[in-house]
Amino acid sequence: MIQILHVEDDRFDQELVRHALEAEAGEFSVTVACSLEDLRRMLAQPGIECIVSDIHLGGFDGLQVLAIARELSPDVPLIFLTGTGSEEIAVEAIKGGAADYIIKTPAHIIRLPVAIRLAIERTKNELEGRRAAEALRERELRFRALADSTATAIFVYRGERFIFVNKACERISGYSQDDFAAMRFWDFIHPEFRDLARTRGLARQQGESPPARYEVRIVRKDGQERWIDYTAGEIEWQGERAVIGTAVDITESKEAAERLRTSEERFRLVIEKSLTGMYVTRQGRFAYANPRLEALLGYAPGELVGRKTTELVVAEDLPIISAAREKLRSGDASVSYTMRVKRKDGAIIDLGVQGVITEFEGTRAMIGMAQDITERKRAQEQIASYLRQLEASMRGTLRAVANMVELRDPYTAGHQRRVGAAAAAIGRELGMAEDKCRELEMTSLVHDIGKIGIPAEILSKPGALTPIEMQIMKAHPQAGYDILKEVEFAWPLADIVRQHHERLNGSGYPQGLKGGEILLAAQIIGVADVLEAIASHRPYRPSLGIGRALEEIERGRGTLYGAQVVDAALRLFRDKGYTLPQ
Question: Does residue 134 fall inside a structural domain?
Fold first, then answer.
């Protein structure tokens, strides 16, 4: 874990840095110093790998922090955080030895983890370079062995020509030792930086002190361009003054930083040009609204910022806002709801809103997306009305058909209606959706429609049926299917009607289906049919009562009837006191 010392006496800015680093999944450990005394004490202890400091502090400033850091821990990189308008001070600090500076805004602070890693890496490489230079001064042969073993590119030049390059330099540039021997030290530098490298390299040899570290692009032998972090120093080589340079390939980190910057710009452009209203609220007020939301609500650019969100919401819908906020306070990461809002011109529109909690400029905020759903909601309400009318019409038609069947069998009048009520109740006990329960009820109204083709004398026969009569009676599920199969319903009504006398063990009719082959709706109606038949009067016997009916389905649980359906029916009648309608 990388040990960070954060010099900051403002709690808000402490939290800003903590949040930026916590997003890195435990890679950083942060210790806060609020005073110069804290700073000295903590730097006296080993382990600090990077210092992050504000430039403007309460009783002291960042330049004092830099001086102490250079005195006590010269090898620990220091990154300054600065507000807009303080960039000149930050640049001076960089010249004084600071590793980097970052502007203190959410858009820039997210670069802090990358900047820390780069600063530590640069310091590490700079230390390696210095150690290599010291080793060169002690013994050139030892230097060569060390230089060739490091991943950092190291080269030495005097005048305009290279006099030493290590293997890492060959790897980074693609040029060989012989190539370098014939090159001027600036020849492999990109034309954009070539004059800079030449001027500084020659000036250093004249005793001047140009910046020791900077980033430049090079052109490899194969034409590929790479970024390097270059550090220069003086060395005595074979008794004469020369320049030693170290270089680290930072192409990937530079490209990552550029991708991040481009991504941020693209993200902002997407938000600004989005066809969805987007906004940020903080403490119940708008902190940001994109042009689309401003247009939806009829406000001029920037006019929404600072306004209370509740000022725009229709009074009757304020509880919706309160409920959403309560969900977020309770720990929900996001909310979704619809509400009515007032445009600036007084018109009322319906908005669909989705919101998530995040950090915005260092404080807790909600980012929301809003769409005008007024027309969609109106269309949905109209469709719902049509569906209700259609269902009412369908229910009336099915009742009329049921009445036709019952006119031919007066002894079972009301049977289909009672089966429908029981089937719907069992469906609810099973946790089925209400629309599915209504389908059970409507299907039950015509589950015996096939009996319309059975002679009345068989239907109302007071005694036992003959084998032939029983075969005729058993044909009614298939007959019902044949009647209904050409009629289009939103659910498999005809199949359910055909299967309501099927049994799990295959002993039912007309198809002898087993287990999962039987639709759940048919299993439910089958159980409701048995309950109603046993508990009601029949021409060949009196009512046997609901108790006998429940015993019958209990005996057949798992063999004839679905276990979950039987269990639901038993709970319904025995535990909850449900009774069949009269």
Answer: no
Q: Give the residue carrying structure tokens 């430049």.
A: 216
Residues 504 and 555 grouped into a single domain: yes
When mean pLDDT is compared over 479-493, 525-539, 554-568, the highest value belongs to: 554-568
In angstroms, how far is CA 191 from the centroid of its own chain? Answer: 45
pLDDT tens by residue, 178-214? 999 899 999 999 999 999 999 999 999 888 889 888 8
Residue keyed to tokens 């046993």: 534
Residue 17 structural domain: 2-110
Is residue 118 in a domain? no
Which residue carries 């049926």 as its tokens? 465
Side-chain half-sphere CA neighbours of 288 within 13 A: 14
Query: Please, what is the angle between helix 545-555 and helix 520-535, to 10°?
Result: 140
Asked if omega into 319 is within 30° of 0 (cis), the reply is no
CATH number of the domain encompassing residue 478: 1.10.3210.10
* Sheet architecture: strand order including 2-7: 28-33, 2-7, 50-54, 78-82, 100-103
Q: Which ranges constitute the DSSP H helices of 369-492? A: 374-408, 415-429, 434-444, 456-459, 467-474, 476-484
Sheet containing 363-372: order of strands: 285-289, 277-282, 363-372, 348-360, 334-342
pTM metric for this prediction? 0.39
Q: CATH number of the domain at 280, please.
A: 3.30.450.20
Count structural domains, the chain: 4
H or E segment to which residue 146 belongs: helix 140-149
CA distances from 294 to 272, 276, 305, 372, 488 (A): 11, 11, 10, 12, 48
From the list 227, 128, 252, the residue with the least C-alpha distance to 172 is: 227
The whole-number pLDDT of residue 127 equals: 86
Q: 25 in a domain, yes or no?
A: yes
Q: Give tens-digit pLDDT for 71-85.
A: 999 889 999 888 765
Residue 144 falls in which region: left (phi positive, over 0), alpha (psi -120 to 50) or beta: alpha
